[in-house]
Amino acid sequence: MSTDDPDLVLRPPSGKAPTELVGRTLVTEEEIRRRVRELGEQITRDYAGERPLLVAVLRGAYMFLADLSREIDLMVEVDFMAVSSYGNATASSGVVRILKDLDEDLEGRHVIVVEDIIDSGLTLAYLRRNLKNRAAASVEVCALLVREGRQKVDEDLKYVGFELPPDFVVGYGLDASGIFRNLPYIAEYTGSGHD
Ligand code: IMP
Ligand code: MG
Question: Which of 67, 105, 119, 175 does the annotation list as catalytic?
Fold first, then answer.
């Protein structure tokens, strides 16, 4: 593998997209920073006096969690869950398998589920049911992105970063076939197949 293969460079000096697979930028680094700060301030106000548990859904939410948690001025704890949907990987089936469960006991805890993107909402609907059954005091959701008009389940989303058009997106934690998670902004993915 050659290290100067242009297709492997994520941030070319020209400021152009890294490869032809990455299209227009939908949310810039600065817009993300500003919005994540606002969400952190809102959570800080809403949970004053509490010690919320931030539950990030791996892997897409890792970067959002890292930034969001630093904008919350409370003694938060963090935990992680990994899930995968059965069947077709490009469209959520709503049947979810837990690949990695939480380490923390949720009883009496104020849980904030930190998600990268809500598409059909089926993954989230499953998670919410599952976490509520563990006797959490409350379960709310903080999603960086919500794809407009796609939700099959009417979910109550307390904190939302940005609403997006139908394009498949990559960057800031979101991947296509495992790559582009470390792009610092969110861009349209212009390749075919992305699972
Ligand atoms: P849902 O169950 O249909 O809401 O699926 C949500 C999950 O699908 C997200 O947590 C992502 O892992 C994945 N996903 C949905 N849309 C995108 C996208 O545009 N880029 C990357 N991953 C996505
Ligand atoms: Mg995800």
Answer: 119
